[in-house]
Write a structure and sequence with these properties.
Number of helices: 0
Distance between the termini: 40 Å
Structural class: mainly beta
Helix content: under 10%
Largest sheet: 7 strands, mixed
Number of strands: 11
Order of helices and strands: EEEEEEEEEEE
């Protein structure tokens, strides 16, 4: 069982930066791949970034590539999403999710989800 708690969301102007954190409980967190997804009202949850559990391989949606960076610190049971050059279209609720012994860009592959954190980018 893994519990995830996101933090770090907020209101920022376009061009600004935020760092989201996903803190996990559980002693086996190092064996979980972690993904970040986002969702706006009326739309499906979409993939943003993911990091594998084994070699820390990273994956990004085209819309955030070059602006967002995902990283993890297993000693702290935490995954980060550094978001730079933010745009109004990045406004959404951001969720982190964990998948045991794997990583994916699709929602259905993840076993555990956090409650989400709101990111609002003003123009």
């Amino acid at each position: 069982q893994v519990q995830l708690v996101e933090s770090g969301g907020g209101l920022v102007q376009a061009g600004g930066s935020l760092r989201l954190s996903c803190a996990a409980s559980g002693r086996t967190f190092s064996t979980y791949g972690v993904g970040w997804f986002r969702q706006v009202p009326g739309k499906e949850r979409e993939f943003v970034a993911a990091i594998n559990w084994r070699h820390y391989t990273t994956y990004y949606a085209d819309s955030v590539k070059g602006r967002f960076t995902i990283s993890r610190d297993n000693a702290k049971n935490t995954v980060y999403l550094q978001m730079n050059s933010l745009k109004p279209e990045d406004t959404a609720v951001y969720y982190c999710a964990a998948q045991r012994l794997g990583v994916s860009t699709t929602v259905v592959q993840y076993d555990y989800w956090g409650q989400g954190t709101q990111v609002t980018v003003s123009s």
